[in-house]
Amino acid sequence: MLDFIRRGKPSLAPMAGVADRAMRELCMASGAAFCVSEMVSAKGYILGDKTSAKLLRITPAEAPMGVQFFGDSPETVADAVRKLLAEGIEDSLPPAFIDINMGCPAPKITHGGAGSALLKEPMKCERMVLLAGKAAGNIPLSVKLRTGWDAEHITAPEIAKRCEAAGAAFVTIHGRHKQQMFAPPVDIDSISAVKQAVQIPVIANGDVQDSGNAAYLLEATGCDAVMIGRGAQGRPWAFREDGSIAPSLRERMELMLEHTRRLCLYKGEYIGMREARKHAAWYTKGVRGAAALRREIVSAMRIPDLEAIAAKLLSWWEAEA
To answer: Are 213 and 187 within 8 A, CB to CB?
Structure first.
């Protein structure tokens, strides 16, 4: 049932506004063990929000893929799971698992009592898993945590134990508390404490860039697998066995353009190009000469605009080689 969890094969983390269908397909093609949807509002989905339903769609190129719900009410999250499995999503594969977001640190999520705010209420977390798990039936249920709300309230080990008792199949732990956002480096001891607290698989997340430091995090924490988030931004090759070795600039530019084409195909050129700009900035990060083209990158309106930028970078690189 959990054969998609592979110790030596990282998975792609759910990242709102980043890890969409285009990115998921590229990362899965590069060797990711599995991926997860962008987080979906349980309440919005229940109320019939079309965008929420679109985020839950799974294509063959993304499988195995889980879907992630967020919400502050155990009953609402359970109702969303029940609706998804009863009605399904048009032209979609069923999810490999269902994940509950208990780690998002964004104020717009925590102010409503969801995401990392749940880490202040261990009993609510347990009830949310219990109700959602019943709604999920035979579909595995997981939770994604941070270590706690702040340094004085490191609740992840307790919550992981409660979630396990309530029926969670596995846990993913990001090694920072809510107040730390994405700095400083992850807390190895806190991740290890979660692993030691439960018998179910634990996936470590945070600061993973490629197969090299993925192996270190596995060894240091004793976890069962790792998940890559920001380390995959502009770097889908991070999931390759030799992911610590950057591909040639030509391949890098080809991946950037393929990513852009998929964004435009799935979202239309207007939205796709505006989202492609940030990805293009990530793909060109550290490339000699890219800084001089940054203004062109962030104002690109059409696919040929990025094709021209890629051609410039390649011509400069080839001239120096």
So the answer is: no
